[in-house]
TrEMBL record:
Domain of life: Bacteria
Domain AMP-dependent synthetase/ligase per the UniProt entry, residue ranges: 46-269
Gene Ontology biological-process entries: phenylacetate catabolic process
Protein name: Phenylacetate-coenzyme A ligase
Cross-referenced Gene3D superfamilies: 3.30.300.30, N-terminal domain of ligase-like
Pathway where this protein functions: Aromatic compound metabolism; phenylacetate degradation
PANTHER family noted in UniProt: ENZYME, PUTATIVE (JCVI)-RELATED, PHENYLACETATE-COENZYME A LIGASE
The family this protein is said to belong to: Belongs to the phenylacetyl-CoA ligase family.
Protein species of origin: Slackia piriformis YIT 12062
EC number from the UniProt entry: 6.2.1.30
Nucleotide-binding keyword on record: yes
Length: 411
């Protein structure tokens, strides 16, 4: 994807004086005159930035404005290593609200809707982002936060929530609980805005069917505002990225070479208006592709495809590289499986042992056939044969946040 003239003008304003404003970029772009960046090729020579860079800049080395202009900080939800802290100016908060409101509008949500917000609040960007967008849109925000499913269901019924926002894991947990209690006809839910973790088609279909809602995938990361920088539309063919705020590239994760539209690689994002913590060529580690051509919905903002996974969530077993998306593909093509699975990888007597646990309503011989089919499809699609074990529906753990599915005890 190439810069438009408008995007390049915004980029040049973003780069102008950046080294003077930010100690982080003074080091990152040492020896580079930002005024020399005049073409697409010039831009593509700029070095990438990574989460490791932001951790080294802890706590506020990334800040590019005076302290008195910072109105808020957020931090990434990751639990490993030094946290990443991102400062926001008032304009950053307004821009984020504008993008998020646009996400809701793209999903057909209006100021007459009642939006129940279940993602977490606090340093994490999720809950407050969903609320910002709802308030900017003029919709009724119901700021529940995570957990307390009993109260979630009561508010959903009593307040007539029409939109549910959640991680896919918690949306599934709510869907199962609503189904179990026979509450669906007592609810007014019409749409679900789901984000923060990748998820497969079977899980999407279950949530949609059991809640009776149309689902929209929302995209974002704390380093780049938070959720709300992109969303799927009524065509459900990828997620539109708001190109007047964000420039997207897809690169070969090994070589760093920019790939043509349509080819899968690592998503790299550049902020075009961010003041508190601008990010230039930030490697997200998310694997996707830029979808070529126009979207049937009519929006002219570029689209990225459903995320394949992350460059850092690949595991290697018995000589085979595998991503969660591939395992979800196997689940999708195996008849009789539900959406929930866990992969256990162990080293036993010096060899790798791979076990796939999956939920199924089947029993006896039917379950055995399902296990055999899953193992065969896994072998055909990924290249190695697991031990497949069907377990009863609801047996695998559910999460109010993100669900961990791959457990590797070899190291």
């Amino acid at each position: 994807m190439q810069f438009t003239a408008e995007q390049f003008d915004l980029l040049k304003k973003q780069l102008n004086g950046l080294k003077e404003r930010s100690p982080f970029y003074a080091r990152k772009f040492e020896g580079i005159d930002m005024a020399d960046v005049q073409t697409q090729a010039d831009f593509e020579k700029l070095p990438f930035s990574e989460k490791a860079d932001l951790r080294e800049a802890y706590p506020l080395g990334i800040q590019a404005v005076p302290d008195e202009e910072v109105v808020r900080i957020h931090s990434s939800s990751g639990t490993t290593g030094t946290p990443v802290i991102i400062p926001y100016t008032q304009q950053d908060v307004l821009d984020w609200a504008e993008m998020f409101a646009r996400c809701y509008e793209t999903a057909g949500i209006t100021n007459k809707d009642r939006i129940q917000i279940t993602p977490g609040y606090g340093l994490w960007t999720a809950g407050i982002g969903f609320q910002l967008g709802a308030e900017r849109l003029g919709a009724m925000a119901i700021p529940m936060g995570p957990g307390n499913t009993e109260k979630q269901l009561k508010m959903m019924q009593d307040l007539g929530s029409t939109v549910i926002t959640a991680t896919s894991s918690y949306a599934l947990l709510l869907a199962e609980e609503i189904n179990k209690r026979g509450l669906r006809d007592q609810l007014k839910l019409k749409k679900g805005v789901i984000g923060s973790e990748r998820w497969g088609d079977k899980m999407r279909a279950r949530i949609s069917d059991e809640l009776g809602v149309e689902i929209f995938d929302i995209y974002g990361l704390t380093e780049i505002y938070g959720p709300g920088i992109g969303i799927s539309c009524s065509a459900h063919s990828g997620m539109h990225i708001w190109s007047d705020f964000i420039y997207a590239e897809v690169i070969d994760p090994k070589t760093g070479e920019v790939l043509p539209d349509g080819e899968v690689g690592e998503l790299v994002l550049t902020t075009l208006r961010k003041q508190g913590a601008p990010l230039i060529r930030y490697r997200t580690h998310d694997l996707t592709r830029i979808i070529p051509g126009d979207c049937p919905c009519g929006l002219n903002h570029p689209r990225i495809d459903t995320l394949v996974g992350r460059t850092d969530d690949m595991v290697k077993v018995k000589g085979c590289n595998m991503f969660p998306a591939q395992i979800e593909e196997v689940i999708k093509f195996t008849e009789g499986t539900s959406s929930e699975y866990q992969v256990m990888i162990e080293a036993i007597n010096g060899r790798d042992v791979l076990t796939v646990l999956f939920e199924t309503p089947l029993e006896g011989e039917e379950k055995t056939r399902c296990e055999e089919q899953l193992a065969a499809i896994f072998k055909a699609k990924i290249g190695c044969t697991p031990e497949a074990k069907g377990v009863p529906m609801g047996e695998l753990p559910r999460s109010e946040k993100k669900t961990k599915r791959i457990f590797d005890s070899r190291y």
